[in-house]
Amino acid sequence: MAVSQPQVLSGRAPRLVVTGGAAAALLLLFLVGGDAAAPVDTFVLIFVSIVIEALPFILLGALVSAVIEVYVPERAFSRLAGLPVGLQLPAAAMGGFAFPVCECGSVPVARRLIARGLHPSAGLAFMLASPILNPVVLASTFIAYNGRGLAWQMVGGRAALGLVLALIAGWALGGDRASDLLRPTPDDVSTHLPPTQRRVALVDHLSHDFFYMARFVVVGAALAAVMQTVIPQSIVGGLATTPLVGTLALMAIAFVLSLCSEADAFVAVSFTPFPLGSQLAFLVFGPVVDAKLAFLYGATFRRRFVLRLVSVAVPVVLAGSLWFEALIR
Amino acid sequence: MKDRRRALRGLVLAVWAAFFGWLWLSGEMTRYLGPRTYWVVVFGSITLGLASAGHVWGLRERSLAPTRSDLGGALLLLLPLVAVIVVPDARLGAQAASRKASSGGFAAAALIPVPEAGGEISFREIDYASESKEYAVSAGVDDGLSVELTGFVTHPSGGPETFSLTRFYVSCCAADAIPFSVPVAAEGGDLPDDTWATVAGTLRRSASGFVLDASRIEPSPPPDDPYLY
Q1: Is beta strand B196-206 parallel, antiparallel or unpaired with respect to B209-219?
Q2: For B117-151, what is the HEC assignment?
Q3: Is A264 part of the contact surface with chain B (CB cutoff 8 Å)?
Q4: Rg of chain A over CA atoms, in angstroms?
Q5: CA–CA distance, A120 with B109 (Å, rounded to integer)
Q6: Which of A214, B141, B162, B179 is the one with CA 20 to 30 A from A52?
Q7: Interface predicted TM-score (ipTM) of this complex, two decimals
Q8: Are the beta carbons of A52 and B40 separated by less than 8 Å?
Q9: Nearest to residue A258, comparing CAs of A116, A53, A77, A1?
Q10: A45/B23 CB distance under 8 A
Q11: A144-154 pLDDT per residue, tens
């Protein structure tokens, strides 16, 4: 069987990338050309540091995705697809405990799982749960809050709310068919290949996923860096007075900062004026929706996915974090 | 070499692998990352290098030319490296401190971590001590304590100080850097933003927290590692 070559996706995504990249480049040139050395320094450091942190994880996610595509036999996915959604959904979400890759790596893996036959709701649940539930993230949360004697509360709260959000969002947004959720993409390759062709196909799939996802992360990192350079975060400091407003403010900050979920607990712990529930919202919302992920989701899923995800994530995280605040007082 | 598309992708990966290798070997990774994520640079240089080698292997298997989208994507992926070349010595300074959230001024005493006994007194400890008397007692931060701090000059508005000395604390990367500032009262006059200096003096508790009464101010070069952890 011939190996068909992965294609770059058509549609709005490439235009979005080109537009975003051009905007970032123009902004950089504008800043370099003007009398603005300090903002340029800030922009470049934040932009480059986010990309440095993200790229290896995208590569790892692309590798796992390629292995799934090329080496996992069709019958395995047929069996999985035959399971009731009520079983697939929690099993996939719980799978996040065993996948130590942050949000940049989980997107290509989820896309591949859904394309291969896993129920879309289950694939989404896995994608949303793994950046929160994975052991590295929970360990970093424990370390960050251990100095305040709140390690177990925050780890438990983060894992529980993250799991609930993944289940609800997966169920609400997944739909019944992969084609309703994923942007159209050619099915790259057959798994019934001789070993030599499989190795070629593995590199092709890894390459395809990495280069497709990485460009969106670059654009998202540029957007996050621009926002961090321009918007004073102190303007939300005054919003910490009530749990409701404080929680919404920290969710907005999580979107702007676009931190890796393996690092965000060390930042959340510094938001001392905000209630613990608001800090929990930062830790659960950020790995699910942020500026760089918005571009990554745009490349992976159909139109309005980000808006639909926000419409589910905001009320769930808000309600969960307020409940957590009431419990822990 | 027939598969030019694969060659292009392999080249981009090789450039990134080389950049990670340079960050690793030159120590430049301290500019962008904190110690918790140094391993990402090592991991990235190896995995990106292997991925590049994987692309080179099999170049002759079929004939493919890169599309315009391939070229655009490759250029976009190289944009961060262009930024590093254009601004090789970028640093977070007073402008970044004015934009990033600081714990100063709104720390809740109940949430401030317990200090380590006999630990070093630096920017963060003085900031926490300004917010919590219990912390100040535990950490041994009090009126008349002699300290020597090295940082860059900032001018947060509204304070009684001549200027503030500031350092960023980083967890994983520059994106999560948090500025901590100590107000400095200096009879010798002000210094411009982003000037690195070593200030020695004694701490004095004011209504808004501890102020460092400077007895000696010396300009100093930026340290090799600009962040504290």
Answers
A1: antiparallel
A2: CCCCCCHHHHHHHHHCHHHHHHHCCCCCCEEEEEE
A3: yes
A4: 20
A5: 46
A6: B179
A7: 0.90
A8: yes
A9: A53
A10: no
A11: 787 667 889 99
